[in-house]
Amino acid sequence: xxxxxxxxxxxxxxxxxxxxxxxxxxxxxxxxxxxxxxxxxxxxxxxxxxxxxxxxxxxxxxxxxxxxxxxxxxxxxxxxxxxxxxxxxxxxxxxxxxxxxxxxxxxxxxxxxxxxxxxxxxxxxxxxxxxxxxxxxxxxxxxxxxxxxxxxxxxxxxxxxxxxxxxxxxxxxxxxxxxxxxxxxxxxxxxxxxxxxxxxxxxxxxxxxxxxxxxxxxxxxxxxxxxxxxxxxxxxxxxxxxxxxxxxxxxxxxxxxxxxxxxxxxxxxxxxxxxxxxxxxxxxxxxxxxxxxxxxxxxxxxxxxxxx
Length: 308
Prior knowledge:
By secondary structure, the protein is of the alpha/beta class. The chain has a single domain (6-307), classed as Aldolase class I (TIM Barrel, Alpha-Beta Barrel). It contains 13 helices and ten strands. The protein has helices at 6-15, 28-40, 59-71, 87-95, 110-125, 157-167, 191-200, 215-223, 233-249, 255-258, 262-276, 283-289, 298-307, and strands spanning 20-24, 45-50, 77-84, 100-103, 131-135, 139-140, 171-174, 179-180, 205-207, 226-231. The chain has an eight-stranded parallel beta barrel, surrounded by nine helices. α4 (87-95) links the parallel β3 (77-84) and β4. α4 packs antiparallel against α13 (298-307) and α9 packs antiparallel against α11 (262-276).
């Protein structure tokens, strides 16, 4: 069962100069495609569940499929809850099988972000779950899940240092010019800022908005302490192109015919990314370095729900 401790996984990535891909899961085809892509290149991978996307699918059902797939994967897997904005959402993710959670208080005043992040850390660490926090605001571009663009605010290194020290988060999401979604024009990446942040915090850094960057830009991020890259928008477009192609080939195609090849398209893009990010052929090393993940018992899950 190669479900592994996410903290061990990402510290191994940081210390060995590669990045683990965290790919958003929105359907069973994404579960299958992401896991098969990781298996094809023997790479660690993270199945990423994003709270704002829950209105498009039944989280409780889909994460059960992800946990089942992770249990039988020969490649090391972790399951992450992304962009929880309160403790209840984080607890829900943990209770259903996530072994990493993100609390996103980036739009809050610094002191309130620290206070609420610390509350999530206290509960999650009590069950062995690592926590990701965010300082700075990562831009959002109008697209599949965004009604309006949200302007970004770059991360200040001094605030990042204080935030990590005061909250005890295990990973830090930073804003250095990337954005959620795809935009016709992007801001230039502030790689000097990223390097300064990496020097003053001692935790792996996380990049949200990995789509739309060049291979060279991804490698620059990894050289400056990034250990995880979140990636979805390009996968969504790969899937859309495949479905449109199937429809053009047969305008009367039924549901299964429209989905033909979708998982394979996801697998191909996942494998390409993992190779660019230098994660290929790391599976055995991660399995040696990372503790196996001991899933929470029903008793632990129940007590967590009662205490919160």
